[in-house]
Amino acid sequence: MPGSLFSTYSTGENRITSSILAVLERLAIDRIDAILGALLEEDFETVRFQNQSAKDGRGVPDATIAASFRILVETKVVRRAVHAEQLQRHLERLKRAGEVDRVMLLLTPDREEPVEVRALRTGELGGARLIWASFAQLDQAIDSVLDEAHRAISEREAFLLRELQKTLAEENLLLTQRDVLIIPARRAWPMYQRWAAYVCQPNRSFQDIQYVGFYTDGEIKPAVARIMSSEESVIFDPENAAYGAELRKLIDETVREGVRTAGAAYKVLLLSKLNDPETIHLAAPVTNDLASDSGRTTAFVQNQRYVSLVRLKAARRTSDLVASE
Predict the structure, then answer these.
(1) Any alpha helices (H) in the chain, and if so which ranges?
(2) Are the C-beta atoms of 106 and 118 separated by less than 8 Å?
(3) Cβ(200)–Cβ(234) under 8 Å?
(4) What is residue 317's DSSP assignment?
(5) Would the pTM of this model clear 0.85, i.e. be above it?
(6) At 215, phi and psi to the nearest 5?
(7) What CA–CA distance (Å, rounded) separates 299 from 129?
(8) What is the pLDDT of residues 138-159, one digit of tens each?
């Protein structure tokens, strides 16, 4: 990795783990807390400072400085490379630890939580916690730290964090960077709400995506649907019984109501329903605030646009997404 601060480290997982630790140990405590908190998806304190603590017995000491946790970190630099047996060994080590808060943090480039993690979570972890996060989430956590002006981050810290992001990108670990297709949805949004589908011209080419988002009414709607299946060219013939029940229902009803043309071919994405657990619900719609040089509002998407799911979850305005491109 020419030009990287971490170019002398060993290859593979050791290089990435060492790079992360090399940066974290040089950051101020509140920066560490912010990054780890984002990965663990909770408020996190490496060290707790408290004045006049009197909870543990008689007498009131002037202050308490406490830290009682252990985080084991396991990294994978290849997708779908998680081994349940290895995680189980790490969890057994955590069970024997005496710290109050025990966490096994798994970092991988996968788009979704590995099934091995979900399976282990259903068992007895002995008070330990197993948490998965993607490198894309780490990248977003760093962006958040760099963007928050109130943290008064030093030039040295900013340089280290950006070098770490550079390392993650050069190692091709940010595979979730563009995993949501945003479509103009004046008609597509009502169709999705009713039929949980997106219909467009046959054989239309899309990038490797997992989700579809809907832009209409000057905002990205808060429902981000997962793609359940895709058909490149479907003849919308109500007499054709070759398709499954969901697709036949879509064909029958849209042709009968004049929404689609009988006998025409379309590409069909069957999507997770609005109330399906597979559908991701943003905290709020993402409002479009893009404008031309003349001040006139411009649409966020004209034909199609790809964004990161991680950044979409954090965005409040479309300019937040444009800034990250």
Answers:
(1) 12-24, 29-40, 84-95, 115-121, 135-147, 155-170, 188-195, 245-256, 309-314, 318-323
(2) no
(3) no
(4) B
(5) no
(6) -110, 115
(7) 43
(8) 987 887 788 665 567 888 998 9
